[in-house]
Amino acid sequence: MNRFSSINLSFRHFRNRNAKAKLLVLLLFLLSAFSANAADKIIKVSQNGSAASSIRTALEKAAAMKGSPVTLKLDLGVWNIPREEAIVRKYYVSNTTSESENPDPSKHIALLLRGLRNVTIDGSGSTIMLDGEMSAFIIDSCQNITLRNLTIDNAHPTQTEMTVEADGKDYMICRTHATSQYRIKNGKVEWYGRGWAFTNGIAQWYDPVRDVTWRDWSPTDNVVEAREMEPGKLYIKYNKKPEVPVGTVFQMRDAIRREVCGLIWQSKNVRLENVRIYYLSNFGVVGQVSENISIHRCWFAPEEGSGRTNAGFADFVQMSGCRGLIDITDTKFAGAHDDPINVHGTHLQIVRATSTNTLLLRYMHHQTFGFQSFHSGDDIEIVNPETLLAEGTYKVKSARMVSPREIEITLNKPVSADLLKNGARVVENITWTPRVHIARCHFSRIPTRGILITTRQPSVIEDNYFYGMQMSAILVADDARSWFESGPVHNLVIRNNVFNRCLGTIIWINPENRKKEGAVHRNITIENNVFTLNSKDDKPVVFHSVDNLKINNNLVISPDGKTTVLNGK
Questions:
Q1: Could you tell me which of 373, 358, 365, 257 has the C-alpha nearest to residue 315?
Q2: From 2.30.30, 1.20.120, 2.40.10, 1.10.760, which CATH number describes the 346-428 domain?
């Protein structure tokens, strides 16, 4: 965001000559400020020795400037950073792994920005080439950070690919992608890289003719024998397998999300601009307890011409417990193994009251825990998980982590004992809920939803293109029993989007409330969208537990080409 974007100037407010003169002075001041910004300190970064140490030395110089604006400008080229040269730090990240799945949550970090202010990393079109199971970047306790003109990739992605060249009743002959390393071990294919290996894994199928992916049988299952026919060509025999069309591409992975592409943690005003991410590691870009995150003209998809068809283990962008504005524009999302965008908070369950105004809370989902998500001055709601309706609003006086799973909060007033006796209750931090703007983005090759959104702040999803989602293109959720992802939507506009051959319920307003004692969501408008249905069973909009839903002027094109206009309230 530049220095003009938060200032709304209009000649309507300057109707006389004196006022116009004042406006001119103000504009000259802003131009001088912009010129000063253009002259900010530039540190040119060359590869002297290892790429990792060169960038870290530059970051140390930026830290020494103590907040004065600085741009680190990388020399054009490929910056190779192997896992062995990563910085190792412990970070708990929402929706990644449980204690049993991954006892050590340490991340192997290529770029660590910690406690910095007013820093831009300009890649000049360069590529950060990781090698191994790694996290590309972590932005920790920073303000006013920009990453731009940069490509992030992995020499040997932790998701492997192979294409079916021949399919028999009990065998396949497959061609592996050049970046997918393998070895035959005990008669089976073991896929490997720096810091990772797997034999049995999860798979998706990619159909290059229809350009769609879906979750299905894994070719790592039921293997009787595997052998190399020639480099990159495998014969795999099974005791049982489905029929697989020749040309199908298998995308295979382990199930454990040990690393992330990027973590934005306890930071403010972070922008990714013209960042091309060809491989996102085990998880995507996660904003966690942060404020104002912008993703503009970015690329979350395999490199064109690379022959790869997938770009990430799971979600591409996940915003967990953030506030301010999440602004995602003009960006391509293709080839995920889960949802491209998921914006949510987290319901923590009340374990018990330790005093009349103090509650012990617990992270309930096994893959989300370990980070402080409440602060002094935050507003919270106590919510009934059966109805998903709030039963009381309070302000936090203090909060402390008791353990990675539990947080104790002290409130500004007593909590009714009767409220806590009537079954389990959960808490949502309503201060840390963001406004969301998602516009002019492209979504394809997705096996799940396109966008999940659960936030009460005003949000707009507009002018996007969704192709071939295998589940809902947009899901408005809220739950306190499964993923514990909060909360209600109070003001959402979905307009001018194109939904092309998405399956099932395309826009689904589906809070997971067991008891219907009132609307969970409200004030949702769905207007001027185009739905091209894949089959007669697909439904443009399905909803429940929502007040003031407006459905206006949406064009629906049936599989046989007939058109209707969808309206309703």
A1: 257
A2: 2.40.10
